[in-house]
Design brief:
heterodimer; A: 363 residues; globular; B: mainly alpha; two-stranded antiparallel sheet; 13 helices
């Protein structure tokens, strides 16, 4: 018998964890001598009250949807892919190569091509850790951490020595050709009279991210492969007994995860910077962990959590602009969310379970 | 390369290996007791900030060291609470601790010093100075041995000697004492330790505590001895290199020393030479940066000797009922 009804597990536990994280964040803000309520108001004003604010919120959310889905798919197979950051970096390389060296006729063909390239590059970067986990039993958490650092070194080398245009100082590729520039929300939604999302980086990849949420939902809950991934995640021995190959599931789940992480680079590299820079991932690979944990590895949850983190990111930028609160506040909030929804999950869950059991006994 | 340059590179190897070694031994205690710790980086960072901050405020580096250890210890308690008491995921807890330290250090630094997330530069008694060992100056004139003693062995801060002394001490503690036997047992078969009437929870908390103290010293060394003050993200992945060294050493103290010296050497060479021209081809500096991680993956893959972690590592212990 379940100790708690499903809705409590899916909604109540994350919500209480989020409240705890928010409460502690408020204490931190008080600790550095600022007013948390005023700070929250400023964040809402900056992130949600203007269309350009939304443009930034959705831009950040796009990154977090991709990386959150990446972590979530791996979680379903009980694999902790901490390497989203590295996979996204290498995915960025895939985007850059596709955009720079293939003469695309227009942006939507280019987007398809770059998406495939980003996914393949990201997936291949996840392949070695996946293979080592499946075949050699090397712990995937450690290998993916190592691969994050190796990815940074690879990208650094490629940008400095190979892709940097002649005479340029900063380690970055040349600007992508005009035909690969993606339409931003400003291009799509502005009318002749009113400019919407002015100057904001949100672009068409947001819709790709939404589509991927649906695709991942289909994959996990409506296909045989998804069933196998979930079965493997629930119990490896039972899955083996049912004829599911652990090697295959580990590798396939990590390939999908890496591919999704790689696709994140579409948004930052092709959509925003229109060239590949050194720090294109901006730590989004790690935020994916918080997003997946909060979203309970469900695509809908991931979407909502990504929107929340998009709001936090844009709101945090506003705070850094107008108050003495540095952007690092967001890192603290992110840490608290990971802590409460991930590591201290039982601390929230145990009292709740007792509460539900007690109420059921009475009834 | 002449002898003087070689000595300089080796000297810088020792300096750079010290924080790795302290953090690596810290991880060794924790992981040998069955608690995975990928939060070494965060604990070092927190210790680096608080040691530099308190040393800057009080002007006393020992107060700084104490504050650094306390900060690191506080994060250790959090890790213990999450992974031992509430049986949460140890890896996720480690990730959270890394971010918590990365965010809070800058936040507090900005609030206390308003210097863009750094502490003021430490001067005088606010820093650990190098110690000249007895006889170093007299022997400096002797060929070969003199410079080795004067440059390489003498002249480091007290924390360097402490770090190197920790290696035999850790070996002795782990393999020659009752506490060490129990510590290793709790990482391999906690149910056996429990059956013997020893508290699994207690032992693991002690191990996590030792880990916190050592990480605290490592962080304090970074900010008050290797450099003069705290800057944002100053650990720069050292916690993960230490983790790599721990795997490379297969969770054994003497091998941890060798692994840390090797990785310290790589850092020292990368720092000094950037790209290395071998005549046939040029080794780019990025290869030196990535080498510790690549070597660790190779070791993990088991192609060159197998690295097998403690059997109960990462698993919360649930008493049978």
């Amino acid at each position: 018998m379940d100790k708690m009804p499903g809705w409590a597990d899916a909604v109540l536990v994350p919500l209480i964890s989020l409240l705890l994280a928010a409460l502690l964040s408020a204490l931190v803000i008080i600790g550095i001598g600022e007013d948390p309520i005023a700070a929250f108001k400023l964040m809402v004003d900056g992130a949600l009250m203007r269309s350009s604010g939304w443009g930034y919120t959705l831009y950040y959310a796009t990154n977090f949807i991709f990386t959150g889905l990446a972590v979530a798919v791996a979680f379903h197979a009980r694999l902790f892919n901490i390497g989203g950051e590295g996979q996204a970096m290498i995915g960025g390389l895939g985007v850059a190569l596709a955009c720079l060296y293939i003469p695309w006729p227009n942006w939507y063909v280019a987007l398809v091509g770059a998406t495939v390239s980003a996914a393949i590059f990201g997936a291949l970067w996840a392949l070695i850790p996946a293979y080592l986990q499946a075949k050699r039993g090397s712990h995937i958490v450690i290998t993916t951490i190592m691969f994050n650092f190796i990815a940074a070194a690879v990208l650094n080398y490629v940008l400095v020595n190979l892709l940097r245009p002649q005479g340029a100082m900063d380690p970055a590729t040349a600007k992508f050709p005009e035909a690969t520039h993606l339409p931003t929300f400003q291009d799509m939604f502005s009318t002749a009279e009113t400019a919407m999302f002015r100057g904001a980086p949100a672009n068409v990849t947001f819709f790709l991210a939404i589509a991927m949420c649906f695709v991942v939902w289909l994959l996990i809950w409506r296909t045989k492969l998804g069933y196998e991934i979930r079965a493997f995640g629930q119990s490896e021995s039972a899955a083996k007994y049912a004829g599911i190959s652990p090697v295959k599931i580990t590798i396939v789940a990590m390939l999908i995860s890496g591919g999704l992480a790689g696709m994140m680079a579409l948004n930052t590299t092709m959509g925003e910077a229109e060239r590949l820079v050194m720090n294109a991932t901006e730590g989004a690979g790690f935020i994916g962990i918080a997003v997946a944990l909060m979203g309970r590895s469900h695509p809908l949850g991931v979407l909502l959590a990504a929107l929340l983190f998009g709001f936090l990111y844009q709101g945090g930028a506003e705070l850094a602009l107008w108050t003495n609160i540095p952007r690092e506040l967001i890192v603290v909030i992110q840490a608290l969310v990971i802590l409460f929804t991930g590591a201290l999950d039982n601390m929230v869950r145990m009292p709740l379970e007792k509460l539900f059991l007690a109420s059921r006994r009475k009834a | 390369m002449d002898f003087a340059t070689l000595l300089q590179v080796l000297d810088s190897t020792v300096r750079l290996a010290t924080p790795l070694l302290l953090a690596c031994l810290a991880g060794l205690y924790s992981e040998r007791a069955g608690i995975f710790d990928i939060g070494l980086e965060g604990k070092m960072l927190a210790a680096a900030f608080f040691s530099a901050a308190i040393a800057a405020i009080t002007g006393d580096v020992w107060m700084g060291l104490g504050a650094g250890i306390l900060a690191s210890l506080a994060l250790s308690v959090l890790h213990g609470l999450a992974s031992i008491t509430f049986r949460g995921n140890q890896l996720i807890s480690g990730v959270a601790i890394n971010f918590l330290a990365a965010g809070l250090t800058v936040l507090i630094a900005q609030d206390w010093f308003s210097q863009g997330g750094r502490t003021p530069s430490l001067i005088g008694a606010g820093r650990f100075e190098g110690i000249t060992l007895p006889g170093a100056e007299e022997l400096a004139g002797v060929p070969v041995i003199g410079p080795i003693y004067a440059e390489l062995i003498s002249g480091h801060s007290i924390l360097v000697y402490l770090a190197f002394a920790m290696v035999p001490l850790t070996w002795w503690l782990l393999y020659r004492t009752r506490f060490g036997l129990r510590l290793r047992a709790v990482g391999e078969a906690p149910e056996a330790v429990d059956t013997a009437g020893v508290s699994v929870v207690g032992l693991r908390f002690v191990a996590v505590g030792i880990c916190g103290v050592l990480c605290g010293i490592a962080g304090a060394y970074l900010a008050t001895a290797l450099q003069a003050g705290f800057v944002k993200d100053m650990t720069a992945g050292r916690g993960f290199i230490a983790l790599a060294a721990l795997i490379f050493a297969k969770w054994r103290p003497w091998y941890a020393l060798y692994a840390c010296l090797l990785f310290g050497l790589l850092q020292a060479v990368a720092l000094r030479y950037q790209n290395i021209d071998l005549g046939v081809f040029v080794v780019p500096v990025q290869v030196m940066d990535a080498l510790p991680y690549i070597l660790t993956v190779v070791i993990l893959a088991g192609f060159v000797g197998k690295a097998i972690p403690p059997r109960a590592g990462g698993e919360p212990y649930v008493k049978e009922r």
